[in-house]
Amino acid sequence: MTATADHYPIKARHVKFDFSDTPITWIPNDPGSTHIINTLNLLFPEGELWFCRVYNKALPHITDPNLHADADGFLRQEAVHSRSHGGVLKHYYERHGIDTKPFTRKLNRMFTGALGETPFGLKIGHTRFWLRQQLAVIASLEHFFGYLGNWVLNAEALDRGHADPTMVDLLRWHGAEEVEHRNVAFDIYRHLGGSYVGRCFHMTLSIGMLLHFMTTGARFMYQRDPGAGRYPGFVIAWWRGSRRGHLPSFWKVMGAALRFFLPGYTPHGEGSTEQALAYLARSPAAQAAAHGGNWGTSKAAS
After folding, report:
1. Cα–Cα dist 299/302, whole Å
2. Which residue in 54, 46, 74, 80 sits closest to 180, CA to CA?
3. For the chain, what percent of residues have pLDDT higher than 70?
């Protein structure tokens, strides 16, 4: 299978990052944006590990060879994403004396409980029906992550604001891979019988879930940064960050969410594969991985 603009092999890049020099407020003078983005570092390790568990169940049911190959590549990329953001928990938060377990335990309960194999005590994890519900949640979340991936690839204000280069490379490497595989979750959901009504229902649930964890996570992180000052609240922190270009426009994020509800929607037009691959060709971490090395020194690599 050769690479083309429309289809090419999706592969995992086994990156490593060194956060030994990353300050707690890694976007200088902007703790609000720092800790809103940091919430993703809390979400990804548990969430993307759950993605992998679901896709391991789905793989035997995928009959299209190209889609099966894409699903396998997606699964492998998500496993590296989970591990890499888990490295942030271990090597960035712990070094700054931040215990994230009170928050990540709640995420674990959600992904192993309500979204796991025995939701609310019901033993339905083996059914095709429950697999479709899980795939619908993943397709909804991947829509957001693909949008955010495209945003961070173009967020030049992070560079102008002297954001920590290792953290920015983590986000852009991850974002580029989200753009690279942006259609896979959506296509698999439809391939396995997912409906329009189902995806609308689960997108509505996913919006509520993300808002809850983003707002509570940002407050959790902000209050553990001794130099951050008084927490201004999620809405004000996001507004300030978006004005600086350190966060996407809230209204554009909501606009992206609403696109998912259009009957003819597909994610294929979200972002540019060529731009994503161009970043991966110059990402310090991705290039170090391609040549058998690490981005930065190894003493604190994830």
Report:
1. 9
2. 74
3. 94
